[in-house]
Amino acid sequence: MSLKDRLTEDMKLAMKAKEAGKLRLSVIRMVRANIKYVEIDKKRELSEEEVLDVLAKEVKMRRDSMEEFKKGNRPDLVENLEHEIDILMQYLPQQLGEQELRVLVAEAVKESQAVSAKDMGKVMAVLMPKVKGRADGKLVNTVVREFLNK
Known about the structure:
This is Glutamyl-tRNA(Gln) amidotransferase subunit E. By secondary structure, this protein is mostly helical.
């Protein structure tokens, strides 16, 4: 079953659940609308990888918003966004732990023969296809900088 089909099925289940699935229904509808928007923009059906990109972007937007709400002392909105992120994470591949990410970064640094922070682009070019959708870009960036500044 494709990711889009799974979203559609889960949306139907959330509709049947009425009150219990209200937030879930809202989040799934929003994601499906964004996928449709990208498809219209690109004038073609999205691949599984592109659907994952849309989902990852949705999670990133919510994480960024969550940081702002924390600064603004809005725990109610932070909690709501945490629930939305939990729902979205169910559709993304298993996320890499920091140790697994460090191993992949070390391999990418070795493979790209990077020696300084100036070579960050080379490392990211090798690394990103391996971690796409499986790790937060901000964390990847931080770990790569750490490796290159040793």
